[in-house]
């Protein structure tokens, strides 16, 4: 039986530009990016957004702040209890995400094959054999079983005393983390610091299932992605997940979700979303499909969910307005779902700076953006660890040629 080249659908809809824009804002609002849909906990935010992108230190905090009912919600990221309910792992496209345990299980198992492959390749490239790695891994597990969470440098020092060289320990750490044996914990008390510790996964996240079958995991991951971010193209889904087209289609097929095909101005390709969600959207009032001004984090999940259909938030803007030279989406300012500028954290002044695209937003909305920047400044100041500086690779950098607006 030949494999389908596209998902099976129950109906098709062609949207006008106005309808498509309304649908995009409805998707954002469902993630907490509207005044009437803000979330009261980090776990709820991570559930609604399918995780918090964590490749840069400020990103999880800023992602939560953009969707939270109160600044205290983002600050709860530093609570040990919250850390026990969210897992940081490399998964989609091998990038760091903080995820609730159920979503983490699916993301881990669905993407394990290419992450494990890379870790084993690093072992070969270093000229080390698997027998020695297995011995180092056992020593690592025994050590953390005795001590609990440890700072990664301390782990290297302790194992070096047993004649295990640091390069071997680093490879063992990486492979054990990718396989889910260990869990990474950043125990710093601020968004601008990292204290990189590792612990045995059953000790700190006993509810995390690391043995989910890959086929089940892909089904769950694609179902969750479609639910949060549909309508999406298949190219969006493969780019976001790092999975093959065949794997994505098979996962959607197994999920048995009734799909509708959507045609929108964002792409010439067909887009897909669940029929149930489309019905919910059509019953939603126009007032509930407006998001206003949003200040999104660097690599915010709401924008990283798409590749082929980025026109939904870029409009006619050049990608260079919102993306840096290595393809990372900058900290953006959205007005009803469209990029109208970027923002950055000025470490010296300890404040948010805006760079708004000329004539992209009316004067009233530019004023609203400045008010939002002032509010975010307060939150970032509270959440910043005292007496530390943000290193250049952790900063959100914007083109120096842009005009700076206070």
Give the C-alpha Rg: 22 Å
Strand content: 5-15%
The largest sheet, given as strand count, sense and whether it forms a barrel, is:
4 strands, antiparallel
In terms of quaternary structure, the protein is single chain
- Uncertain parts: 387-406
Number-wise, the strands total: 13
Category by helix and strand content = alpha+beta
| Number of helices, counting only DSSP H or I runs of 4 residues or more | 17
Helix content: 40-55%
Order of helices and strands: EHHEHHHEEHHEHHEEHHHHEEHEHHEEEH
**Termini, distance in Å?**
62 Å
> Averaging pLDDT over every residue, what do you get?
92
Shape: globular
Strand order of the largest sheet: 10-11-12-13
Mind sketching the topology for me?
Layout lengths: L10 E4 L2 H14 L11 H8 L2 E2 L4 H10 L3 H5 L4 H6 E5 L5 E5 H25 L4 H18 L2 E2 H9 L5 H14 L2 E5 L9 E5 H4 L9 H16 L4 H8 L3 H11 L3 E5 L7 E4 H8 L10 E3 L5 H4 L6 H4 L17 E4 L2 E9 L4 E6 L6 H21 L23
Parallel strand pairs: 1-8
Antiparallel strand pairs: 2-4, 3-4, 5-7, 6-7, 8-9, 10-11, 11-12, 12-13
Helix pairs in contact: 3-17, 6-9, 6-11, 7-9, 11-13
Keywords: DNA-binding
GO molecular function, one term: DNA binding
Pfam family, one: AlkZ-like
What does this protein look like?
The protein is α+β, with helices and mostly antiparallel strands. The protein has 17 helices and 13 strands. It has a four-stranded antiparallel beta sheet with strand order 10-11-12-13. It has a three-stranded mixed beta sheet with strand order 1-8-9. Strand 3 and strand 4 form a beta hairpin. Helix 3 packs across helix 17. The longest helix is centred in the N-terminal third of the chain and has 25 residues, at 101-125. It is globular, with a radius of gyration of 22 Å. Mean pLDDT is 92; it is low at 387-406. One of its GO terms (molecular function) is DNA binding. Keywords: DNA-binding. InterPro entries: AlkZ-like (IPR009351). This is Winged helix DNA-binding domain-containing protein. It comes from Sphaerisporangium flaviroseum.
């Amino acid at each position: 039986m030949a494999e389908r080249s596209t998902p099976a659908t129950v109906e098709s809809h062609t949207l006008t530009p106005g309808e498509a824009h309304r649908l995009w804002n409805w998707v954002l609002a469902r993630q907490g990016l509207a005044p009437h849909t803000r979330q009261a906990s980090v776990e709820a935010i991570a559930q609604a957004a399918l995780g918090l992108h964590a490749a840069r230190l400020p990103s999880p905090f800023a992602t939560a702040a953009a969707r939270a009912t109160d600044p205290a919600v983002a600050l709860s990221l530093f609570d040990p209890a919250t850390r026990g309910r969210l897992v940081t792992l490399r998964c989609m496209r091998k990038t760091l995400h903080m995820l609730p345990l159920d979503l983490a299980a699916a993301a881990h198992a669905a993407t394990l094959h290419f992450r494990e492959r890379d870790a084993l390749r690093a072992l070969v490239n270093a000229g080390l054999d698997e027998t020695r790695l297995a011995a180092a891994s056992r020593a690592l597990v025994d050590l953390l079983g005795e001590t609990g969470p440890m700072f990664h440098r301390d782990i290297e020092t302790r194992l070096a005393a047993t004649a295990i060289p640091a390069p071997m320990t680093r490879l063992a750490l990486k492979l054990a983390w990718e396989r889910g044996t260990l869990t990474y914990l950043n125990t710093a008390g601020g968004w601008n610091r990292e204290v990189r510790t590792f612990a045995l996964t059953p000790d700190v996240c006993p509810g995390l299932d690391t043995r989910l079958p890959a086929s089940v995991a892909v089904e769950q991951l694609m179902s969750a992605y479609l639910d949060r971010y549909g309508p999406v193209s298949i190219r969006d889904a493969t780019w976001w997940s790092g999975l093959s087209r065949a794997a994505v289609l098979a996962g959607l097929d197994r999920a048995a979700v009734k799909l509708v095909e959507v045609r929108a101005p964002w792409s010439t390709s067909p887009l897909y979303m669940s029929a149930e969600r489309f019905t919910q959207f059509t019953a939603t009032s126009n007032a509930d499909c407006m998001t206003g001004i949003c200040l999104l984090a660097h690599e915010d999940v709401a924008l990283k969910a798409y590749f082929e259909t980025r026109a939904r938030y870029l409009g006619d803007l050049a990608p260079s307005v919102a993306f840096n030279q290595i393809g990372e989406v900058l900290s953006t300012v959205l007005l009803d779902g469209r990029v109208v500028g970027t923002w950055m954290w000025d470490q010296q002044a300890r404040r948010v700076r805006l760079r708004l695209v000329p004539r992209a937003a009316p004067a009233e909305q530019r004023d609203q953006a400045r008010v939002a920047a002032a509010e975010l400044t307060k939150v970032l100041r509270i959440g910043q660890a005292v007496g530390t500086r943000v290193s250049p690779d952790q900063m959100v950098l914007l083109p120096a040629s842009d005009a700076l607006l206070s």
